[in-house]
Amino acid sequence: MIHLEESKKNIYIVATGKLTDDDYDQMLPLLKRKIEEYDKINWYFQMKDFKGWTPHAFWRDVKFDLQNANKLNRVAMVGEKKWHELMTDMMKPFTSAEIKYFDEADADKAREWISKS
């Protein structure tokens, strides 16, 4: 399940549980619209009790990320588990975006960080 917020060129997403195609049906149109409007966007992605993706949802995520790697300015990944931090590190070679991991306790700092670009 996801919760979406937006503010100018910033997208805020909180993901809980396992992400499905329904979540991507909500998320991807918003991301694409913001990219069309601003060219480059900032993305805050918080994982709370996050269990990953269904296989098809994961494919949609990878496909979007690869197609829009140069359209992301800053990505703040906020998590609560070591694998969340490792996932953040694995993203870095595939994009020119500045990507930074924040522990859940620093979620406010992550929101502040993406809004400064």
Notes on the protein architecture:
The chain has helices at 21-38, 55-67, 82-91, 107-114, and strands spanning 2-7, 10-19, 41-53, 72-79, 98-103. Strands 1-2-3-4-5 form a 5-stranded mixed beta sheet, with helices on both faces. Helix content is 42%, strand content 37%. The protein is an alpha/beta fold.
Rounded Rg: 13 Å
Low-confidence stretches: none
Strand content: 35-45%
Secondary structure: helix percent: 40-55%
- What is the count of β-strands? 5
Examine the coordinates and then state which fold CATH places here, giving the name of the CATH topology.
Transcription Regulator spoIIAA
Specify the structural class. alpha/beta
List keywords for this structure.
4 helices; 5 strands; alpha/beta; 117 residues
List the helices and strands and how they pair.
Blueprint: E1 2-7, E2 10-19, H1 21-38, E3 41-53, H2 55-67, E4 72-79, H3 82-91, E5 98-103, H4 107-114
Parallel strand pairs: 2-3, 3-4, 4-5
Antiparallel strand pairs: 1-2
Helix pairs in contact: 1-2
Short description:
The protein has helices at residues 21-38, 55-67, 82-91, 107-114, and strands at 2-7, 10-19, 41-53, 72-79, 98-103. By secondary structure, the chain is an alpha/beta fold. It has a single domain, classed as Transcription Regulator spoIIAA (2-Layer Sandwich).
